[in-house]
Amino acid sequence: MQYADSSALVTRSWQRCHQTGLHPTDQANDQIITGKRIKEIIKENQALIQYTVPIFEKLFPFIHQMGHIAMLVDRQGNIIHTIGDPDFADHAQRVQLQVGANWEESRKGTNAIGTALVESRPVRIHAEQHFFRENQFLTCAAAPIYDADGEFLGVVNVSGQKEGFHPYILSLASLAADSLQNKLLLETSKHEHLLTLKELDQISASHQTPLVSLDRDRRIVRANAAAVGILGKDCLGKEFVGKKGYTTQTISDQTSKMWRSVALHKKADTPDQRGLLTSFSRLAGSCKRIVQTKELALKAALTHYPVLLLGESGTGKEVVAQSIHQASTRATQPFIAVNCSAIPDNLVESEMFGYESGAFTGANREGSIGKFEAAKQGTIFLDEIGDMSLRAQAALLRVLQEKVITPVGSTRTRPVHARVIAATHRNLPEEIKAGRFRADLYYRLKGIQINLPSLRERSDVIELAEHLLRQINEDDAPVPVLAPDAQKLLRSYQWPGNVRELQSVLMQAAFLADGGEIEAHHLQLDLPDLAAYDDNQPILSLREAEIAAIQKSLAASGGNVSKAAKLLQIGRNTLYRKMEEYRISNTANMGSV
Ligand SMILES: Nc1ncnc2c1ncn2[C@@H]1O[C@H](COP(=O)(O)OP(=O)(O)OP(=O)(O)O)[C@@H](O)[C@H]1O
């Protein structure tokens, strides 16, 4: 789905409002449909509401946690079904954000529902972007819904108070609209051949699974937006011959279960509210990369696909795994983390799959259940999967393929219900090339692949640092403030240990600052030259240490700034900036870069 450039879209909408003669300080022309007419409208949209109810129930924990409400709106802009936070619903009624109200743009000015209806695309309208002042306390996102034949049916809208702004409410609305569309597509293509396309090289960050339905002659009868994006706008009616770079998978009974689970989980399965509060909110950060990561993790939480988390050490892979678990319908079941690199090779099977009594010398007399069984219908988190031996990989692959385990010393298999989330800091395609990792296992594990950005790639280091400082500060003492020089240093440092390193540096700094402002000299960073520090030499100030490190790296690289920056593990521009700041001239090689 295409997200619109919000500023251009808002400008267009405001122009339409002015042209219609609306004025921001006017009161909206509210029209609440009640009685017979609303009953008729609800009846006309009964099927749509019926499909929406379970999807909204699935979203309820997220919506409620955010203090928002979700709405189903028909193509005329009438709200026909809502779910969400009752407190906010009371506020919302002040501006008639309730069943029976009409939110067409010509009536209610620029707003997510009305503007999405006009623009036929997902729209987010935040606070002052609303045309009428009376609506500016809101933050809203709406995404259009189309039926399997591409007919426009209405929108899904998520709204809350502007203070509760979440960057991913648009994704949430789009996700609900996508699930609804897929459900409609599945219903209408019961007699057709329904298949999905899977990227061979990489699972894209797109929010929707591509779905295509074929008639008996393999002509494409229907396709959802994701499939049209891959196959081209004119794909309908054409013979389906596959697509380079993609495999196809028929949606069998088993895979359609996955869809039902996306769309139809009953409220009884919804996760624990408190769990949710600590789930995605633990993942601090608002830079683009981390928001994308959270969106994808949220999507993963709503499915039962295996998840593969890739990222350097300390980037938060385990936090993401826990967040996915807590936000999923499995939250009330166990989350079992297994560090694959810590299990001796000869114990992998018994640790993972358990053993029967007397299976081997030293084994517990009663036998023991393995991690897969301990996870029950919850999540098993296989950390450091890239460090598993090939023998253990083969055993794991069998489990993932056959969905059963055989405890050591037993002949009886037991079913596996747990969802697998795997993680590694290794580059698995390279491990495969080197013959250290099985390609078939890799493809099994990467149902949804989430790449976690390193701290170097993130633009929100200070925000993250402030979040971590609040966490570190256990008692009610004031949270230490980061002085400008400390912020500068935190931004320019290369963070080989990522968030874990940032956490420990801040912990030390808070201790050293002793309740005062944290300054640059409180930050004990692992600067390269400190490794070479000799006991007999005086301790250098941070500035002196940086100067010495830069001079040494320039000398070692023969004046080549790129090489010197590499040695220092910083970017070339950062090195140039520091050379300028410390007035270091490149005497080793004046002409070189
Ligand atoms: N976005 C984040 N917000 C807040 N804390 C975070 C974030 N990312 C990571 N952390 C914290 O950083 C530390 C390291 O995270 P975690 O253990 O999840 O990393 P990892 O990638 O699994 O590391 P490894 O590969 O070494 O196992 C944890 O204490 C975690 O709470």
UniProtKB/TrEMBL annotation:
Keyword line: ATP-binding, DNA-binding, Nucleotide-binding, Transcription, Transcription regulation
Q: Where is the Sigma-54 factor interaction domain?
A: 283-511
Question: In which organism is this protein found?
Answer: Brevibacillus fluminis
Q: Please verify whether the record's keywords include Nuclease.
A: no
One GO BP annotation is: regulation of DNA-templated transcription
Under which name does UniProt file this protein?
Sigma-54-dependent Fis family transcriptional regulator
Q: Does the keyword Transcription regulation apply?
A: yes
Instruction: Select a single GO molecular function from the record's annotations and give it.
Output: ATP binding
